[in-house]
Design goal:
- About 24% of the residues have low confidence.
- The protein has 23 helices and 8 strands.
- With 518 residues, it is mainly α.
- β3 and β4 form a beta hairpin.
Length: 518
């Protein structure tokens, strides 16, 4: 279970950093910096894990690429809105509640935060979730406060040790990364970065944490770990806890700093080794070696049975998710965790445009309903829901100027849009034991006649579940308003779906079923 959470958050971290030029390393680098500071401070494994996991997704509340660029200034005015939105998504949507804007105008204070119980913040005016709280509310609290200034004056109305220690660490790590210039050697920039931090020491940043950072930064390897070539390995080292506190740290100082922590965080277990069987899934379940390639798509041997005589491919093998005992299992508990995570990040995708505010949720629910009517078992139907929720994860790599464009897309813009299912595939490919959900989610623009994108798969490689998600995607997209047209009537939707069946794009049986039950 822990490995699934780590893998999912790492995947979403990359999605949050998608741009025209590829994957930027901001979230990953902040996670490495935050983990190093937390370890140098002497935090427990559980609190180190919470700090690192929160860093991986700390800007999930950012709505547009323009807002993201603005936050990459060292001193930014009013950075709190995206922190509050991030909290709301994790604590609200993750518990099954719809996301709603906070409803404050620029310059107004955000939701009030008061000390509660052992220093844990209690938020007035924000929804209280149910099941989602157990998983992501600790992360939500960290993200809510990750731009709070040490000296106070924050919309949260907390200051100094009232700010969660994980949030203070994240704030410092985030601003260090903003200061780094990728065009220069990182270790060459120490003095410039330290000068900027000293100017905000005791104002924006906890002085004790700045001291910990300075101690860590004496090692040249501290800076080399942050370089793009070594960043992934550095993050993995942080996750598995293989880093050590630098020699020369004063234990008494660590104890004094650790004693200043305002409140214990809810425990987050450390990351274990990879679950058994995952690597064999990546290279073929029969151990036949490297995956074969088809139109740029890695297809694991044995993933799908090749259909003959025009019949659709059979459902892919069962998802292997690690149970508490370490054995492979598909359990309602694991699927529930997947649903919580998927709802959260579907909201991150959909809220970027007013025209897609419910699209992923709609595709997920339609897929679940069709799966039930097709006679699929309960867990498979819930996995279908997860695939529908995540199918557009790659659209985080498409600018909102394209998503909201009212005129026809240019050829270049169309090529950019066609990249999004490819990105979805590779983002989800990094989540352990996620193979078939990855495929169902990322094949939604493939066609039965092989003329779809991005992989050009035909009916022999498209399972029933992948076909379901494709139909649900078109059904939802046609029913919803778009920047270039209002939502279509049910009759218009059915007419277009029928035409797509005739043209060889969609499965006729599933389209017919959708017309009866959706």
């Amino acid at each position: 279970m822990d490995e699934l959470l780590w893998g999912f958050l790492r995947s979403v971290s990359k999605a949050l950093d998608l741009s025209y030029s590829g994957i930027m390393p901001h979230h990953m680098r902040v996670a490495v910096l935050a983990s190093k500071i937390a370890r140098g401070l002497g935090l427990s494994q559980a609190r180190m894990a919470l700090t690192t996991q929160s860093a991986l997704i700390h800007d999930l509340g950012v709505r547009t690429w323009g807002d993201r660029a603005r936050l990459h200034n060292f001193e930014v005015d009013d950075p709190y809105e995206h922190a509050v939105d991030g909290y709301r998504i994790l604590a609200g949507v993750g518990a099954g509640n719809p996301w709603r804007p906070i409803g404050r105008t620029k310059g107004e204070p955000g939701p009030s935060v008061r000390a509660c119980g052992e220093g844990q913040p209690a938020l007035a005016g924000l929804d209280r979730g149910g099941g989602g709280r157990a998983l992501l509310l600790p992360h939500a609290r960290v993200i809510l406060h990750h731009h709070d200034k040490w000296e106070g004056g924050n919309p949260s109305r907390v200051c100094k040790n009232e700010i969660p220690i994980e949030s203070r660490i994240l704030h410092l790590a985030d601003r260090v990364d903003v200061l780094l210039d990728a065009a220069k050697p990182f270790n060459y920039q120490k003095k410039e970065i330290f000068d900027a931090l000293d100017n905000q020491r005791g104002r924006a940043f906890d002085p004790a944490l700045v001291d910990v950072l300075y101690d860590l930064a004496r090692s040249e390897s501290f800076w080399f770990d942050l370089e793009p070539s070594f960043l992934a390995k550095a993050l993995e080292a942080c996750i598995v806890g293989s880093l050590t506190v630098p020699a020369g740290r004063d234990p008494s100082k660590t104890e004094v700093i650790a004693a200043s922590i305002a409140a214990p965080a809810e425990p987050v277990p450390p990351h274990p080794s990879r679950c058994s069987g995952v690597e064999s899934d990546r290279t073929g379940r029969d151990g036949a070696g490297a995956p074969r390639e088809r139109s740029g798509l890695p297809v694991a041997p044995g993933t799908y049975a090749q259909a003959s005589s025009g019949k659709r491919a059979t459902a892919s093998p069962s998802l292997c998710l690690p149970a508490a005992s370490g054995t492979e299992a598909r359990t309602p508990e694991v699927i529930e965790i997947l649903e919580v995570l998927s709802r959260v990040f579907a909201e991150v995708v959909d809220r970027r445009s007013p025209y897609t505010r419910r699209h992923s949720q709609s595709v997920g629910e339609c897929a679940f309903i069709l799966g039930k009517h097709l006679g699929l078992d309960e867990l498979t139907c819930r996995e279908l829901r997860v695939a529908g929720l995540l199918h557009d994860l790659g659209k985080l790599g498409v600018s909102e100027s394209i998503l909201d464009k009212k005129a026809s897309l240019t050829e270049e813009e169309t090529c950019i849009v066609k990249r999004h299912p490819y990105l979805t595939y590779h983002l989800l490919d990094e989540v352990p034991c996620f193979d078939r959900i990855r495929d169902w989610a990322s094949f939604h623009h493939e066609r039965l006649d092989g003329r779809g994108y991005p992989f050009g798969l035909d009916s022999s490689l498209l399972s029933t579940e992948a076909r379901v998600v494709a139909v649900c995607d078109v059904f939802s997209a046609l029913s919803d308003d778009r920047p270039y047209r209002p939502g279509l009537s049910r009759e218009q939707v059915q007419s277009i779906l029928a035409a797509m069946v005739e043209s060889g794009a969609l499965d006729g049986e599933i389209v017919s079923l959708a017309g009866r039950v959706l």
